[in-house]
Fold:
Amino acid sequence: MKHAKHAVVVDSPAQRGPRHDWSATQVLDLFELPFIELLDRARAIHRETFPVGDMQISTLLSIKTGACPEDCAYCPQSVHFDTGLNPERLAPLEEVLSAARAAQAHGATRFCMGAAYRSPRPAQLKAIAEMVREVKALGLETCATLGMLTGEQARTLKDAGLDYYNHNLDTSERYYAEIITTRSYADRLDTLAQVRGAGLKVCCGGIVGMGETRADRAELLRTLANLDTHPESVPINHLVRVPGTPLADAPALDPLEFVRTVAVARILMPGSRIRLSAGRTDMSDETQALAFLAGANSIFYGDRLLTTPNPEADRDMQLLARLGIEPARAEVTQPA
Structure:
């Protein structure tokens, strides 16, 4: 059944600032605008809030791989699925620093460290805090994704110099139980609150193409946009269908629906970095160009994202050059 259309009023961010009061109907109406009109609206907002042709570059390194106790249906690192992945212990500091230096040499301004934990233990957190300090000393922005955090853990990372913490909502609250059963939606929202309370910037988005409906995609973005403070970074991941996971045979998402999701995210969260994350290996250059036109202004690059493939750095730089897009500079602040 087709959703009834209503007039969608999108004020200029310069006129009223970001909104935090979107209704489900308003967000779904944005999704259902004619494609060109939606892109026009998203592009106008993007041009108001960011320099033309600006692109933030991040690199993501898995610092502890596999054996995760969670049962996220998309994840090859889950202990619940047989994906042929060999678990690895926490990486040594020098290995992490070597990867960070290489990322910086290739133009990355933010270095993200991901560990397959439900929640880090004290010794693990201490070692990761040292990684954060050393990576920050290189002049890179720092980001980590380590699972759920308490307020004390978040403050430890903040004191070490962490800039961003990534903790995705993944999908709508309605669809969430179809994807994950080992932690609740409320658990995820609580971690976001602890991270924000510690003074860290938030990196939070989701995954599309997991069998969810358009209404689920709209509700995910509405939840993010109605947080008291919008996430500074919003990763939009396209499902990577990994053999051995429950979503290995999920139906492919229409590329234009992916671009619609990016455009609506830009309208709802005008000041956030909207990042193209997982799944870019299977995207054409044309799909990525449309996503940039729709408001995406950040990418993960490097040959892998945790355990899944990602376009090589040279290919990314060639595409950005063809589009006249310049990598942004780092905005690094040193810990007090």
Q: What stands out?
A: The CA atoms of residues 62 and 306 lie 5 Å apart. DSSP finds twelve helices and twelve strands in the chain. The two ends are 55 Å apart (CA to CA).
